UniProtKB/TrEMBL annotation:
The gene is leuB. Catalyzes the oxidation of 3-carboxy-2-hydroxy-4-methylpentanoate (3-isopropylmalate) to 3-carboxy-4-methyl-2-oxopentanoate. The product decarboxylates to 4-methyl-2 oxopentanoate. SUPFAM superfamilies: Isocitrate/Isopropylmalate dehydrogenase-like. It is found in: Cytoplasm. This is 3-isopropylmalate dehydrogenase. The lineage of its organism: Bacteria, Pseudomonadati, Bacteroidota, Flavobacteriia, Flavobacteriales. Its EC number is 1.1.1.85. The record marks Y142, K189 as: Important for catalysis. Mg(2+) binds at D221, D245, D249. Pathway: Amino-acid biosynthesis; L-leucine biosynthesis; L-leucine from 3-methyl-2-oxobutanoate: step 3/4. It catalyses: (2R,3S)-3-isopropylmalate + NAD(+) = 4-methyl-2-oxopentanoate + CO2 + NADH. It holds the Pfam family Iso_dh.
Amino acid sequence: MNLNIALLPGDGIGPEVLAQAVKCLQAVEETFNHQFVYKEAPVGAIAIKKKGAPLPDNTLKLCKEADAVLFGAIGDPKFDNDPNAKVRPEQGLLKLRKELGLFANIRPVQAYPSLLDKSPLKKDIISGTDFVIYRELTGGIYFGEKKLNEEGTIASDLCEYSEGEISRITHLAFKAAKTRKKKLTLVDKANVLESSRLWRKVVTKIGESYPEVALDFLFVDNAAMQIILNPSQFDVILTENMFGDIISDEGSVIGGSIGLLASASVGEENALFEPIHGSYPQAAGKDIANPIASILSAAMLLEHFDLGEEALAIKKAVDKALKKGIVTPDLKPKSQYGTNQVGDFIAHNIVDIEDDFNMNDENIDLGKSTII
Ligand code: IPM
Ligand code: MN
């Protein structure tokens, strides 16, 4: 298959984790005989610095022309700590999502058997967890009208949803549930919010055409608790933009590190793949950031183009790295493996999945393996 992939490394650790995902895609090209063309463009704080805008026109154009976008990370503390900043890196990502019509953000959450003791949650609570969050991505409070009075003392953000916006992602979520454990949970705040009541109405109606899927509802406060108390009860969670943002970070605790969570953002015509984590500026350039979320985002890209076997090759190689403890310090505090080495190991194992490198496990534990 030929694919044109736009690479948007962004800020902080974005470039270094994205580079590992590209290594893995190149390993897939080599192994499965595909041809991917990569074109890179700036976004976020780096784009503000270089081009004066968080999403320069040329970057948007490149993304629109590409078959898919692979995104690194966005954000810079310089802007976070300045409430008066006129322009912010995050606006680049939000504009990109809107312009590309990426209304559904898909975030799988699972407890990897080899990492059960890495989570601060008890093993027997998280064991068997495997759910996916369908987060609405181009509506709600993120995109509603924003107001600030002249004195700068009163502010508001409008949370608005239309039936059409709710229904298009709801269909995707039900279709996903059909292929999984056949359960869909709508997370909302329908006891308080009018927009949530509309979500319930629309989702209930659509649910009638998916009789094989059990539909239930949870208020977001209760959902936040249930995700920690009993995460294996979930299959597909459907929710609006901001609730999805919050509970997906919460969900990452189950896996043991936010550095493991990948996502796909899809629309009618475009698709973008990115880790759910931020730019982690404290780690930038230190070769310690976990590249797995970015690598698994590349696997989601392949799945999007029906390259299931290829995606599986990446996931198996990731599993192997996790099992062998070839991981960054977020998962093993004393680990001597850096971002690059973990990327190399995973890429190598895609090319030759059976090759065990004749690795000496003891050396791996000591971080002394010379093979990676
Ligand atoms: C995410 C991020 C973004 C969001 C930020 C960077 C705008 O937190 O993708 O979850 O809030 O959607
Ligand atoms: Mn977030």
